[in-house]
Structures are given as structure tokens and as C-alpha cells.
Design goal:
By secondary structure, the chain is an alpha/beta fold. It contains eleven helices and twelve strands. Strands 3, 4, 5, 6, 7, 8, 9, 10, 11 and 12 form a ten-stranded mixed β-sheet that branches. Strands 1-2 form a two-stranded antiparallel sheet. A hairpin with a 6-residue loop joins β1 (51-52) and β2 (59-60). α1 packs across α3 (32-46) and α2 (21-27) packs across α3. The longest helix has 29 residues, at 62-90. The radius of gyration is 23 Å and the shape is globular.
Amino acid sequence: MRAMETKWLEDFVSLAETRSFSRSAQLRHVTQPAFSRRIQALEAWAGTDLVDRSSYPTRLTPAGSTLYDQSLEMLQALQNTRAMMRAHTSAGSDMIEFAVPHTLAFTFFPAWVSSLRKDFGPLKSRLIALNVHDAVMRLVEGGCDLLIAYHHTSQPFQLDPDRYEMVSLGEESLAPYSRPQADGSPLFCLPGKPGEPLPYLGYAPGAYLGRMTDLILKQAQVPIHLDRVYETDMAEGLKAMALEGHGVAFLPHSAVQKEVRSRKLVSAAPAGLQELRMVMDVRAYREKPTRKEPAKGQAQALWEYLQSHGDNGQV
């Protein structure tokens, strides 16, 4: 039998409180089938049914009610232990831990930290670079002080506004780029032709910027003709291929601003196709502090600084 995992207990507590598999799956950032499998795995570990699936809204069996009470105690004990461990490791250094998706870690984050040091003051930081899903989960599971991520209304994060807060750090544009020809014009210029699609450097399936690019292409006013010849999870990988002239890639402005200034990359969209560009927010998120687990001193000071210089709003 598989060992019981603490995330199963967190799933179960969420289900007991929302009484909805679909709502809990959203809050836990997993698909509903995956969420259901984890509840089933917990029931297999417990050796009994924990959920009465014959009723709606969902309710717990007597065994489920007992486990719910015990789960709250166990998770709180683990939370308290983690807080003590983090206090030990952060004492004296007050290191701020950031969970950041890979693209922002390479492009936005270094320049942003430089600007902070000028205005906010000295800053000790630990960067945890992950894919978007894992970065969000890092915040949800209490493994970082701040999450920095892109935001667009078409792909919002399902974070509970009662538990999390956010501040906007600025904007980022996503647009198509190509290596230039000798005369400065793009080697590959959209929209392409039906019989001559342009070589397309795309994001791997599931990548956040890939979903944003798909939305741009879907909303284009004219047909776009592309032939996917390469894909990777990371914008830096696409940029390297675009610089070598392998095709057209949709890239964040912060990733290519140096190359655009030096004319090593140029826009692959003519003036009449300005809709092939999307503007996203760059946002910082954190879990709201509580009396039991207040924010670290430096992390709290940084958040107050960001609030005074950014746009605050609902997550």
C-alpha cells in the first residue's frame, strides 16, 4: 500500500469545507480527475469510505468526519513545525524566497531586483525557478514568501482572495520576433502564405506562454500560416533558435530588449498586424500573514514597499 501523503489530507480538508469536488480541484490547482484519484488514494490508505458520493452537495461519512478533525490537527502541527524550521533558517539572514516561472527568472527578475536595490535598499533573495504550475503550488504549500508570475484575464490563477493578496509590478508584452535579413527586414514575416508556411518556434504543450501565444493566433484578424519546426518550455530556448534564424518565435519583451536594440532580432509582424501582440501583467502574490504565522520582517517590509509603488487588487 502506498504511504499516505500530506497533500491528500489537504485535498480532503478542502473537499470537506467546499463540499464540491470541482471547486476543491480548482483551489488545489489540479484537474478534477486527478483530485478525485487523490481522494480515492486516501480512502484506500484509510481502508474505508470517507465521502458519501450518493448525496449532493458532497458530505462526509462518519469515518470521514473523524479524519477531518484529525487532519486539521495534524496539518496545523506540521504548519507550526515548518514555521519553526523556517524561523531557524531565516534568522540572521532574513532571506526572501521568491518562486518565479523560468522565463521571468531569466528576464524580468534580475533587472527588477536591481531596481529594488536602488529604491528599497539592500535585499537578500533566494530564487526558486519553476514552471508556472509548480511555482503557484510552491506558494500554496508555503514554500516561498512571494510568487512572481504573469497574469492575463484569459488565464487567471484560482487563488482564494481571502487567503492571498497581490500587487502589480508592471506590464510585459508578448509578440513575434525574427532574425533580420541584411536590409533589416525580418527573415520571416507574418502572416505567411497558405502554400509557404513560416517555420515556427513554439512553446511545449502546457506552457503558460504557449497558451498566450495560441490565444494571440486565434484572435488574429487574418489567417496565420505556420509550420511548427521546434518547441521547448522556455522562452530563452526559443530566443536562441530565433537568433540563429531557425524561425519566428513569440517572446516576452524583457527577454529580447537587448537583441532588439542591437538589431539582432526584429518584429516579425508588419504594422498592419498589431493584434499579434498581447500585454500581460507581471504580479507578485503572497499568502496573507496571520497571528500564528506572520510574514518575515524583510518580506513584510518589501511587500509594504511594493504596495506603495504598485497597483493593488484582487487575486
